[in-house]
Amino acid sequence: MKHRIVVLGAGYAGAVTAGRLAKRLHRDDVEITLVNGDPDFVERVRMHQLASGQDLPSRPLRDLFAGTGVRIRTAFVTSVDVDRKTVELRGGQGGEALGYDTLVYALGSTIADHGVPGVAAYAHHLAGKPAALRLRARLGELAPGGTVLVVGGGLTGIEAATEIAEAHPGLKVSLAARGGVGDWLSDKAQRHLRGALDRFGITVHERTEIARVEADRAVTGAGDELAAQVTVWTAGFTVHPIAAASTLEVSGTGRIVVDATMRSVSHPDVYAVGDAAYAIGAGGEPLRMACATANPMAWLAADALAARLTGRKVPDAPVGYAAQCISLGRRDAIFQRVTHEDRMTSTVITGRAGARIKEFIVAGTVWGITHPTNMAPSRRRHLLANGEAAGADAAQARFATAR
Question: FAD/NAD(P)-binding domain: which residues (predicted)?
Answer without folding.
Answer: 4-285
